[in-house]
Amino acid sequence: MSVPAGQHTVRRHNLALVLGEVAGPEPLSRAGVAARTGLTRGTVSSLVEELIAAGLVTELAAARGGPGRPASPLRLDPRGPGGLGLEVGVDSVRACVVDLTGAVRVQRTVASDHRDDVPDAALARLAALATDVVAEAGLPIAGATVALPGVVGPNGVLERAPNLPRWVDVAVGDALSTRLRGLPVRAGNEADLAALAERWAGGPTDAIVVSGGIGVGAGILLDGGLFAGAGGRAGEIGHVVVEPDGLECHCGGRGCLETLASLEALARPDAVRAAGRALGIALTGAVHLLDVPAVVLGGGYPRCGAPLLGAVRAELAARVFSRAGIDVRFSTLGQDAALRGAATAMVQAVLADPGEVITARPLARPPDVAEGGAPRPATVRGAGP
Amino acid sequence: MSVPAGQHTVRRHNLALVLGEVAGPEPLSRAGVAARTGLTRGTVSSLVEELIAAGLVTELAAARGGPGRPASPLRLDPRGPGGLGLEVGVDSVRACVVDLTGAVRVQRTVASDHRDDVPDAALARLAALATDVVAEAGLPIAGATVALPGVVGPNGVLERAPNLPRWVDVAVGDALSTRLRGLPVRAGNEADLAALAERWAGGPTDAIVVSGGIGVGAGILLDGGLFAGAGGRAGEIGHVVVEPDGLECHCGGRGCLETLASLEALARPDAVRAAGRALGIALTGAVHLLDVPAVVLGGGYPRCGAPLLGAVRAELAARVFSRAGIDVRFSTLGQDAALRGAATAMVQAVLADPGEVITARPLARPPDVAEGGAPRPATVRGAGP
User: Fold this and answer.
1) DSSP label of A114
2) CATH assignment of A204-332?
3) pLDDT for B69
4) What confidence tier does B269 reach under pLDDT thresholds 50, 70, 90?
5) Phi-psi category of B252—alpha, beta or left, where left has phi over 0 and alpha has psi -120 to 50?
6) Contact list, A319 vs chain B (CB under 8 Å)
7) Which of A162, A220, A230 comes nearest B292 by C-beta?
8) 3-class DSSP state for residue B296?
9) Which of A313, B173, B304, B331 could form a disulfide with B185 if both were Cys (CB 3.0 to 4.6 A apart)?
10) Does residue B68 or residue A374 have the better pLDDT?
11) Contact between chains at A162 and B321 (C-beta distance less than 8 A)
12) Contact by Cβ (8 Å): B3, B11
C-alpha cells in the first residue's frame, strides 16, 4: 500500500513552511525553525535533511550561542535551483538568472527591434541569449518566465501587442520551451511581472505599478497579489483615455495615456510636465475605480526625476476625492523590474512549493563550457544525466 | 458535555445546502433534495422540519407523481423573514420589503432634498418610512441594508458624498438601527447594491454596472461578487476624468464623468449623445483597467433609450483594443436597483446561512395595526413579545 494522500500533502506543506522560515531575514538553526513553526525538532531535522539533499538549503559554520551543542544556522543555498527571466521588449531581448536567495547571477540585454519583425527571429535570438546566460550562471534552472509587452491571455498566449503589430496570438512560452529543450516557460505581461518584482523588493502590498517604456502598462497589486480582472488582462492603463480628441494611438484609439506618456512622448522638448499631468489624470481614474492607496512609477520614469513626480502628485491631489494622500513614488528597479520579476517568479514558485522541485528531481545541472569556446547549449530540466 | 463544534458546523452547512436546493427554480420534494445533495432522506427530513419550524420553508399540497407515498413539493415560505431595503437619495428617502422568495411586498418613496440638509432630519424621515413599510408588509424582518450615495467605508460609515456636502463621516447604519429599535442595519454604496441587484436578477457575473442619477457611480462585479478594491471603495467611475479642462465637479475635480453624464447634465438640450460619448470614454478606461466583458447602464439611463446606448457602444468599439465586443445593455431594474439590492442582500444572507436566523429566534413578528388608524411602529428583532 502507498502512503495515504493526506501524509504526502502534510509533508509537502511542512517542507514549504520550513523553507519559508529558512528564507526569512535572520539565520535560524533547526531548533529555531522548530520553535517558530511548532513542529517537533525531529520533524524539522528530517525536513531540513530533505531540503539540503535537494540543494535548496545549506548549513553555515556552527556558531556556539549558549550551552549545549552548537547550533548551525541554515540558509537558502545560492547553488540551488535558480529562476530564468526572459523578456521580449519592443527593441530588445533580455535574459537573467536569479538564484534562490534572490541575487542576480547574470543579466544580459541584446538590441533587437521587433516593431516590423515577425516573432520567429526574435524568439531564436532570445533562446540563444537564454542558453548563454544559463551556461554562465552555472546553476540548475527550475523554470523560466517570459515578460511580454502586450496582452497575455490566461493560457499564456500573447494575444496582441500594440507596438508589435505582427505579433498576434503567438504562443511565446511554448515556442521558447521548444527551443530550450523542454524547459517549462510561462508567459506574463511585463507590467504585471514588474509589479510583482516591486512587491518582492519590499514595495507596497496595494498599488498601481506603472511601467513607462515604448508602451505604458500597469500591474495592479491588491493584498500583495496581482489583480487579474475578469479575464486575466487587467491593468492596461496605457489605453485609458486622457485627451478624447488627442493623437492617434497604435492601438487604434485616440488620446490614450500612451500617446502622452510613453518614453517616445517624453523625448519631445518640455514633455515631462505634460506627461506627468497625463499620468495624474489617468491615475485619478484608476484610483477611483480600484481604490488603491499607492502608485509606483517604474520603467523609464525614474530617470525623469522630480518634475515628473511633482506633476503626478499635483494632479492626484487636485482630483482624487475618495482618498487623502495617495503615496506616489519611483520604482527602485526601473527598467529591470519586469525581467527581475520574471526570474524571481520561478524562485518564488520553488519557495512556495519545494515539494514540486523535490518530486521532479533530478534537476538539470548547468552544462560544461568548452575551454576557450562558446558555451554549449544549456542542459535544462529533463535533459540531465 | 455539549455537542462538538464540528457537528454544529456541519448541520449549519447542511441547512444552507438544503435551503439552497429548495430556493432553486423547480419545486423539489424531500426525496428530490436528498437526491441532489447526497444527504440521506432521514437527514433531509430532519433539516426540512427545522427550516419549516423557522418559517423559512413551506410545503405545497402533495402531488402524486408516481408509485408510493405522494411527494410534497417544498418552497421558500413567502411569510418567512424578509429583508428591509432603505435608501438615502440626494432628493428622496425610500424603503421596501422583499420576502424570502424575492418578491417585493411594499415599496415607498418620499421626496426629501438633502443637498443642503444635515443628516438628522433625513434619517428621522427614513426611519419613519421604514416603520410604516415594515408594518404594511406584515412580515418578520431579518435585517436592513441602507443604500447611500457616496463613499462608504468598510465599517459602514458614509465618509463622503459629493452631492451631500454636509454628510461627512456619518454612521448611518448605527443611527438608523437606534431609531428602529435595534434592528441590524448595514450600509452600502448605492451603486454596489445596484450591481448586486442586477446579478441577482439574472444579469452577467462580470460587469461594470453604472448607476446614472444626480451622481454617477458603478458597482463592479467579478465572478458574481462585488469587487471592493484595496480599501472597499472601488467603482467611483463618476470621478474618472473625461475632459481634463472641463467643468468643475462637486468633488473638487474638473471634467469628471459626473459633470457630463449625470441626470442633471442629461437634462440639457441635445446632451444624450455627449453623455453617451463621455460614458464610453470613461468606460474605455475602466474596461482596460478591469478587463470586464460587460457593461450595464442603470439608474436613470434606460430612460434615455437607443441614442445613449448607441453612443456608448460606438465609443467602446472605437477605443477598446484588449477585448472584442463589449456587451453593453440597459438595466431592467433602473432606478429601483439599489433599493432592491439593499433589501435582497438581507434575504441572500438568510439563504446563505439560515442557521444564523434559527439561532437568533424568536424573530420579531409584524405589529398589529389599529383599526382605521395609522400602523403602530414596527416590532423588529429584539423587540418581540
Assistant:
1) -
2) 3.30.420.40
3) 60
4) confident
5) left
6) 239, 241, 252-254
7) A230
8) strand
9) B173
10) B68
11) yes
12) no
What band does B379 get if pLDDT is binned at 50, 70 and 90? very low
**How many CB atoms are closer than 10 A to CB B241?**
29
Report the relative pairing of strands B327-330 and B216-222 from DSSP bridges: unpaired
Residue from the list A235, A244, A289 with its beta carbon closest to the beta carbon of B242: A244
Domain residue ranges of chain A, discontinuous segments joined by + = 5-76, 82-192+337-359, 204-332
Q: Which residues of A touch B217 (CB under 8 A)?
A: none
DSSP state of A237: G
Among the partner residues A242, A284, A321, nearest to B162 by beta-carbon distance: A321
Which homologous superfamily does the CATH classification assign to the domain defined by B202-332? ATPase, nucleotide binding domain (3.30.420.40)
**pTM, whole model, 2 decimals?**
0.86
Q: By C-alpha distance, which of A256, A374, A307, A112 is closest to B284? A: A256
Chain B hits for A240, CB-CB cut-off 8 Å, are: 284-285, 288-289
CA–CA gap between residue A87 and residue A338 (Å, rounded): 8
Interface test with A, best of B250, B321, B326, B327 (most A CBs within 10 A): B321
What kind of fold does domain B82-192+337-359 have according to CATH? Nucleotidyltransferase; domain 5 (3.30.420)
Would you call A164 helix, strand, or coil by DSSP? coil
pLDDT at B124: 96
Grid coordinates standing for B255? 471634467
> One fold for both B82-192+337-359 and B202-332?
yes
Question: What confidence score (pLDDT) does residue B381 get?
Answer: 40
Contact B30, B365 (CB under 8 A): no
The correct answer on CATH 1.10.10.10 for the domain covering A5-76 is yes
More confident residue, A134 or B382: A134
pLDDT given at position A69 = 60
ipTM of the complex model: 0.85
Cell of A270: 518640455
B82-88: strand order across its sheet: B104-111, B92-98, B82-88, B141-148, B185-189
Give the span between the Cα atoms of B174 and A208, in whole angstroms: 34
| B147: β partners | B87, B188
Contact B117, B207 (CB under 8 A): no
B206 to chain A: which residues are within 8 Å by CB? 230-231
Contact A319, B254 (CB under 8 A): yes
Letter string b/e over residues A104-137, b meaning 16 or more CB atoms within 10 A of that residue's CB: bbbbebeebebeeeebeebbebbbebbbbbbbbb
